[in-house]
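QA checklist item 7 of 12: single-chain prediction sanity check.
[x] sequence parsed
[x] length recorded as 224
[x] structure emitted
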Amino acid sequence: MRRESRAAARERLTAISRLLRERYPTAECALRYEGDPWRLLVMGRLSAQCTDARVNEVAVPLFARYPTAAAMAAADPRELEALVRPCGLFRTKARDLILASRRLTEVYGGRLPDSMEELLTLPGVGRKIANLLLGDIFGRSCVVADTHMIRLSGRWGFTPEDKRDPLLVERTLTPLLSEENASELCHRAVLFGREVCTARSPDCRHCELCRAGLCRFSERSRYE
């Protein structure tokens, strides 16, 4: 991976963000949580090793049965497991959702806490979900190191491509991004990672980042 100064890396990532903003003017979370912070927490947990589309489908009957954190906190584990089963890892996810909803209700009065430290005390919530919540609910500039952001960070040349470390991606990209665009870049990266820079067959020929000389993956591929 080519070495570049912090200033050059920041300038390149800003240019990437700008081109993705032109491609995807509206940066929205793919999870349809209807503005409810607790619902985003639940859907974020369900999205682990599951597609956003599947989570959106499961969420309809799930929230019809459990419309509030208090209702889910009192859920029968087997009934909840049956509802979230299509998302995979259903026993673990159901357990975490009940415990997280219970803590949210008993400790925070049903209101989502607004700090990384407090969010991480909720069962099933790791840094990826916490950053998603901080960015989408509280408007913070947070890097959500999901599978797309990790892959793209490596291909763009900001982190080692063979080292899929979400914390490294978060800590590397955060200081390179302005307060306005970190969360939005991550949402756009999901769309870009699905449509253009896919895991198996990145479409470098039709990629505006490659044409602009901003992607280290396409640059390296020309010489391999």
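[x] summary fact logged: The mean pLDDT is 93.
[ ] second reviewer sign-off
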